[in-house]
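Closing statement on the S-adenosyl-L-homocysteine sub-project.
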Amino acid sequence: MPGKVILVGAGPGDPGLLTLKGREALESADVVLYDRLVGDGILKMIPKGTKKINVGKQSGNHPVPQEEINRLLLDYALDGKTAVRLKGGDSFVFGRGGEELELLYKNNIEFEVIPGVTSATAVPAYAGIPVTHRGASSSLHIVTAHTRDSKEPDIDLRKYAEIGGTLVFLMGAAMVGYIAEGLMDAGMDRYTPCAVIENGTTPRQRKTIGTLCDIEEKAGSVHSPAMIVVGAVCELSGRFDWFSRLPLYGKTIAVTRHEEHSSGLAGRLRTAGANVIECPCIHTESLVTKRMARELKIEVKGYDIIVFTSASGVRAVMEGIYDIGCDARVFGDTRIAVIGSATASALEGYGLRADIIPDKYSGRALGKALSKAAERGGRILMLRSVEANRRLNEILDEAGAEYKEIAVYRTIPECELNITDLINKGKIDYVTFTSGSTVHGFMQFHKHADLSSFTAVCIGDTTAEEAGRCGMSCIISQNASVDSMLNTIIGDSIFEAE
Ligand code: SAH
């Protein structure tokens, strides 16, 4: 049985603009053939085992010729595979999507087309330009100013000078002057508003607003991908530019936890306009074997309070318990204490609600809460990592509390992406740390980084102390929640701006 080909439009850059259907297609694919304009954020959504082929076209340098792409799609489908062809924007808007379908049609291969959000409307939207607006523009014309051989484009600008409405030119970055002059030569008013937008919808977006006669000079050197928008609607940009007014627009933030833990944080930071670099510095490994899970199941009965100090600890224990065919009932009515809301919500995922959550995310606050409970004779079992900070133990010792500790996971330093160069070039504004172990992991791989060039965003005082000891200047999020982290960074960046 032959497979099929799905053309998927990836949208203009912001990974959030991929459609739900597009994402499902990526999850179902055996192989994904993608273009240069498809961003990392979307490539990351492709499951790990799926084959990825970069057929990206560089201007003047075509790594995979179109005929060969057509052929590859056909071959994969004939081989019974589901091939996703992933393209920037929408596949049918100057995306050569139709050409790729021809060969499939001739060979009776099943195909599907999932439209994408085209840059032609989305990029102006992120620059505060509605492509049509009552009283300003009642038609929209999307024109390509690309050339086959990077000579002058083959478009008759006289036609467009008369047409009225909004003109969107998708083009090589070098075409701004050619288009502006061509339109003026054709009689268009030299003071017609226009905009050049580069890297639209991404944190690297750059927008220049001008008129036909000064846009080339104002825009200066323009980098691909870029477009020029011509028409009265460009004047609205000053009022409607919501994107560059986002609180973290222009800030670059490195997140040091693994995606599965921090996707909430990374996603929220992006929504707030930040350029987020995910560079995990640790990963965790469960130490809970089946045998240990069975012992734990019996042992918990002898305690009044079970303590979790991280979501990783919760996962290690609960997965172990599930592995031996049990569930949350092994805890009976034993009370559960956690360090903060993130750990509490990890527990809720397994049907358990935390009984004790200190107001502030800190070992000290948790220690106090536990000591109080222990005064009434409560026996405490702490399920933590091998590397767990000793502060909590000291507090419990001082209070004379009776407790036992079992290491249920360990953290292993790793470095998927080294950002030393970016840091030393002053390109990183904030680095987030969610535990002391992320600080240690980071330090292990970034020994030569200039720690004075960014601000460390730490969850809780203990993490901040570790970061401070290494020489970083810190701001502290008093809670482990994504909201608290986000607000801490926003608060700091507003303070800096003032
Ligand atoms: N199929 C795509 C367009 C492909 S042509 C779509 O529907 O969006 C490629 C051109 O699109 C680029 O040269 C540039 O002019 C424009 N473009 C694509 N993404 C862009 C972005 N993020 N910012 C500015 N222009 C972009």
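DSSP finds 19 helices and 20 strands in the chain. With this model delivered, the sub-project is considered complete and its resources will be redirected to Aim 3.
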